Amino acid sequence: MARKNIAVAAFLSAAVLLISGCAAGFDAATNTQGDSGNGRSMDVGALQIRNATIVVDPVDTSRATVLMTVINTDDSVDDVLDGVAAAKSVGVVGEVNIPLPHKDVVNVGFESEYRIVLTSVTGGLEPGVFVNLSFMFASGQSAPMSLLVNEKAGFYADIEIPAGAIEEVAPEPVQSAS
């Protein structure tokens, strides 16, 4: 009788491991983290991007601003954030030219004169949506990131989204199969 109980216990233990997904390997849902919504971070060479996110005005979801902190950890070389490539449904207003002095911290979008303003006419800036942006630097490096669009409320209530001319984003043409 004791052997039967031990066999049943061993069988149930193995079944629990298989059913729970704990033994599903490195790609198990419990081991894989999706995009974070409360600020993404990335290192590109000597540049560190911290807490990058997008804030949209709930009254006007056709425009938003990027919030982030960029740290240039290089001992002697300055850099410049000189471009932002956006997803097809999102455009960037104006030119981006943000100096990044060596051994310095630069805020973008808050407590700073530097702004990156995004526009969309197709609903690409709705709260809760992730937008793919690639930040390009004068040093030739780029930082592709998927950033969450947050509503200008709560923690982000005081964020200023600059007004300006809304530039219409033209969708890319799709070639026909014929």
Description:
By secondary structure, the protein is mostly beta strands. The chain has a domain at 40-156: Immunoglobulin-like (Sandwich), CATH 2.60.40. It contains 1 helix and 10 strands. Strands 1, 2, 3, 4, 5, 6, 7, 8, 9 and 10 form a 10-stranded mixed beta sheet that branches. The model is unreliable at 165-174 (pLDDT under 50).
Characteristics:
mainly beta; 10-stranded mixed β-sheet; single chain; 1 helix; Immunoglobulin-like; 178 residues
Short overview:
This protein has 1 helix and 10 strands, in the order H-E-E-E-E-E-E-E-E-E-E.
Helix vs. strand class: mainly beta
CATH topology of the domain at 40-156: Immunoglobulin-like
Number of helices, counting only DSSP H or I runs of 4 residues or more:
1
CATH first level of the domain at 40-156 = Mainly Beta
Tell me the Rg in angstroms: 23 Å
Q: How far is the N terminus from the C terminus?
A: 73 Å
| Succession of helices and strands | HEEEEEEEEEE
Helix content: 10-25%
Shape: elongated
The CATH architecture classification of the domain at 40-156 is: Sandwich
Estimated share of beta-strand residues = 35-45%
CATH superfamily annotation of the domain at 40-156 = PCu(A)C copper chaperone
Could you give a short account of the major beta sheet? 10 strands, mixed
Summarize model confidence as the mean pLDDT.
84
| Uncertain segments | 165-174
